[in-house]
Amino acid sequence: MSISIPKKEPLEMPNKTHYSVLIVGGGQAGLSMSACLKERSIDHLIFEKNTIMHSWKTQRWDSFTLVTPNWQCDLPNHPYDGDDPKGFMKRDEIIGYLDRFAEKVKPPVLEGVSVEKITKLENDHYLVVTTQGEFTAGQVVIASGGYLKPIIPRMAERIPETVLQMHSNQYKSSKQLPEGAVLVVGSGQSGAQIAEDLHIDGKKVFLATGNAPRVARQYRGKDVVEWLDDMGYYQKTVDEHPLREGVRDNTNHYVTGRDGGREIDLRKFALEGMELFGLMENYQDGQFIFKPNLSKNLESADDTYKNINARIDSYIEKNGLDAPTEAPYQPVWGPKEERENLDLAASGITSIVWCIGFTPDFSWLDLPIFNGMGAPVHHRGVTKEVGLYFIGLPWLHTWGSGRFSGVALDADYLAGHIQQFGNSLAEKETTHALSEVL
């Protein structure tokens, strides 16, 4: 089933160009921020270059589901409102949940307006240059997310044009693809689930793996997410995590909520005919070239899987909980050899789905707030550039910061910070105005 996005009439531009707060991005993070600012009666405006919740409505495949249980959905004043809290919403259900949230918030938003540049003025206000003119604000919240520019390597340019190539954000279903085999590059959440989707549909799948970890779906009588919640993992802040800010670079564990939820074991796919390889390194002279690390990738994913289960075992034992026991995981398949080459013509590959992630794009943000890797430096979303904030980034504060489960906490915190700073800014401006008069 496809989602049709209704065409909107051109929005009238607001009759003012200065706001207390301007928000860039109309996804769940931007609307959560709007909801919390509305509660505090703080005037604001959202710029959204497409339409609100655009990526959810256009960049998810047909069989997409949440990978965390529905009960974790908890946007501001909008918890999960269905009748299956331990289930996993499908794409259309997720969109319905988000549409109902947007209807509650009724955010002040300009859709179809892109932000081209943000700078700071001498009076400490921010200048926001958009495709619909210039705006100023006392404070700005960047809610555009960290997944903006799809990654497709330059080697893709050398692959014959007869091979259809797409990024995971373009994939909908196997029906898009021509007859023939498919090469899926990347085994993170998207790659593993798209490979499974194609495999279920009867496609011959070649999968180039990476170092993504995996996790069980159910263990000892409960969903692993429920165990981790009981253990306080989702309440742990980035400052408390052993990796500190390094956790923001971690790859998400692959698992699925499809068909009521199950784990993904790439070894099982291999038994069923999917062909697995190590990391894809190059394409030249009609050959795909892979790093000989398939065994290492599979073992590393299994180690994470077993480590999480062991932590659950320790928690159960320490607290004297009554839970069923389970036999330790045993690999069902292993590669007999490491294959480093795959011939394009002989393999019958006619399409490639690149599932190697995204990079952020903050080139339009002309302020000194980035580290040497181009990532924004902040603490809990607050930057050293007074009045500038981020929300919706992975591990902004907790594991749930970039998800439905934790963005409300971040939005409420930032709204309180914004209110406090706004009061002091107003007091400062009033004092300055009085001194000018006197």
Structural write-up:
By secondary structure, this protein is an alpha/beta fold. It has two domains: 18-148 and 360-437, FAD/NAD(P)-binding domain (3-Layer(bba) Sandwich); 150-354, FAD/NAD(P)-binding domain (3-Layer(bba) Sandwich), CATH 3.50.50.60. It is 27% helix and 19% strand. The chain contains nine helices and 21 strands. Strands 1, 2, 5, 6, 7, 8 and 21 form a seven-stranded mixed sheet that branches. The protein has a five-stranded parallel sheet with strand order 10-19-11-12-15. A three-stranded antiparallel sheet has the order 16-17-18. Helix 1 (28-39) runs parallel beside helix 3. Mean pLDDT is 93; it is low at 1-10.
> How many domains make up the 3D coordinates?
2
**Poorly predicted ranges:** 1-10
Number of H- or I-type helical stretches? 9
Number of strands: 21
Name the CATH superfamily assignment of the largest domain: FAD/NAD(P)-binding domain
Major sheet size, sense and barrel closure = 7 strands, mixed
State the CATH class of the largest domain: Alpha Beta
- CATH architect. name of the largest domain: 3-Layer(bba) Sandwich
Shape: globular
From N to C, what is the helix and strand string? EHEHEEHEEEEEEEHEEEHHEEEHEHEEEH
Structural class: alpha/beta
Oligomeric category = single chain
What share of residues is helical? 25-40%
Taking the alpha carbons of the first and last residues, their distance comes to 67 Å
Strand content: 15-25%
Pfam families: Pyr_redox_3 (PF13738)
Protein name: FAD-dependent oxidoreductase
Keywords: Oxidoreductase
GO molecular function: flavin adenine dinucleotide binding; monooxygenase activity
